[in-house]
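Title: Comparing notes on inverse folding

I've been comparing how different people in this forum approach sequence design from structure. To keep things fair, I'm posting one structure and asking everyone to reply with a full sequence. Here's the target:
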């Protein structure tokens, strides 16, 4: 079952995709690929992607839909995952640009600029804090010689 942070992240990606009033195939594929591959979505059932995306799109069609979606994202997204949501939204916009003739996107063109490297770390963030000392619990750091 989807958790609120899953829904908020997917709503963020759908909102980025719908910003130009279209949801292109590259954008939809990108949303699906990210949900299937990123650690934050490991406990999300893949079948729920279309249900959550559809609910967001339906909400956006309401008169005050944009405000409702933004309020939901604001309320449901933990502070720790806000930069992750931003990075995912940027990826969706880049997927849209990559699918348009005559437009270029940063993805795949060349080495990523230094500003995107921290975004990579945010994109792979999870809700659980990292265990100390490289992920191994119960070990103590050896003293420096």
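Reply #1:
Here's my take.
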């Amino acid at each position: 079952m989807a958790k609120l942070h899953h829904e908020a992240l997917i709503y963020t990606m759908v909102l980025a995709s719908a910003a130009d009033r279209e949801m292109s195939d590259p954008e939809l594929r990108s949303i699906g690929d990210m949900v299937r591959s990123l650690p934050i979505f490991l406990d999300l059932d893949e079948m729920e992607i279309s249900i959550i995306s559809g609910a967001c799109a339906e909400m956006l069609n309401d008169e005050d839909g944009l405000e409702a979606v933004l309020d939901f994202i604001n309320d449901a997204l933990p502070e720790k995952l806000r930069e992750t949501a931003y990075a995912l939204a940027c990826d969706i916009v880049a997927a849209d640009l990559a699918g348009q003739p005559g437009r270029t996107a940063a993805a795949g063109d060349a080495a990523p600029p230094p500003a995107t490297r921290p975004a990579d770390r945010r994109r792979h963030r999870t809700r659980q804090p990292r265990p100390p000392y490289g992920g191994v619990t119960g070990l103590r750091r050896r003293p420096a010689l």
